[in-house]
Amino acid sequence: MAPYAYDENGRRVMAPSKGELREKSILDEAEKQLIAVGADAMTVESIATAAGLTRGALYFYFRSKNDVLAALVQRIVIELSGAVSTRQKALPNLPQDALLSAIDLTRDLWSRHGAVMRAAVELSPSVPVIAQLWNGAREEIVESLQALVVAAAVETPDGSSDEDALVRALVGMTERVFYDASVAGSSLRTASETVATIWTRVLPFP
Amino acid sequence: MAPYAYDENGRRVMAPSKGELREKSILDEAEKQLIAVGADAMTVESIATAAGLTRGALYFYFRSKNDVLAALVQRIVIELSGAVSTRQKALPNLPQDALLSAIDLTRDLWSRHGAVMRAAVELSPSVPVIAQLWNGAREEIVESLQALVVAAAVETPDGSSDEDALVRALVGMTERVFYDASVAGSSLRTASETVATIWTRVLPFP
DNA sequence: TCTTAAAGTCAACGTTGCGTTGATTTTCCT
DNA sequence: AGGAAAATCAACGCAACGTTGACTTTAAGA
After folding, report:
1. CB of B92 lies under 7 Å from some atom of strand D
2. Does residue A13 sit in helix, strand or coil?
3. How many CB pairs under 8 A join A and B?
4. Is A43 (CB) below 7 Å from strand D?
5. Beta-bridge partner residues of B54
6. Can you tell me the distance from the alpha carbon of B140 to that of B133, in angstroms, rounded to the nearest whole number?
């Protein structure tokens, strides 16, 4: 029986001020180790001692190791979500530019949070909480871009085709290309160009 | 894997021994459980008892749980590899048809071995042996398709672009779309169409 | 200021599942 | 037959997860 209340994402409800500091330091240390050694090699013990407490104490703040990872992912999902919606408000006049700026935004996120995003992709299949966060974020992007495509009234070269499915596939492709580049440590700029080429060839704007 | 002896014609010298049968039954049971409960929930204990032996005995045949999974993946990689090379010999006259037949082949593999292929994708990041097999197979496909694109002298709509990177990205996209469809249990035929649309729009054959 | 409930901390425990070992039985070859 | 190689298993050790219950600190109200 859990002595404290947790929200649907596994975070403690209403963490007190001192606790919030601890919570943040746990997450910061966890992110460091995620970058340094990866999610597998990173153990609850190592996170706890790095944050200056014991395993048992860590379980006061997070229900499980996976919840720590999920909180890390959530940080980025929140940032991403905010960026998507503000970018959508300041809609550029040209749809091409809107698309390119979306790709740019994606590249920026991957360059600044590569390790966490890689972890999100890799853990999604086995950690439901993370899958939920990650899929939700992707869905937001998909919808934003579908709206863009509809608004721009993209001409379909070869008759009817399911534009929604195409956009979803392209979003998946984008994630994939950046993921690969991030893993390989190769240029995200090059990845960006590849992605842009494919988008514009598949969805030629008028 | 196990060092079998082969004669000068490449046939195996000895008829399937008791051990080989055991090995096969282990793999068969493992595949069943992979389909039924997934790689995580499937334990060495459960595989062993399902195959009618104890954990210790299983480790006589495979060095680790991951090696069992890897052997499962290898089965499919071998089939895939064979299919790719035979299809390449019987090259259709029209490059579009070659491409479509390649997509068809991929769909067929996903429909028959979805569970194992999903496992391969999901385990690649954390299991080096599997990553090696899977990446090798993908590389084979990439090269085969790059050759196709070069031979067909695809016209690039917008000046110079790194065709190799495009093909690699498209192969990744294909894997991704089929993976998603397989996870969602949705129509692989629909996935096939989406994939085909994207390929042909990105690489318009003359 | 004293009280006390909640917040915070930790050592020790229990569990699961992986991989190893050494001893034992079965099979196969000569 | 007899010995080498193949096959089998019970028991062990271990890492990492998550839990428990008891202890200390903090802060807020009488």
Report:
1. no
2. coil
3. 73
4. yes
5. none
6. 11
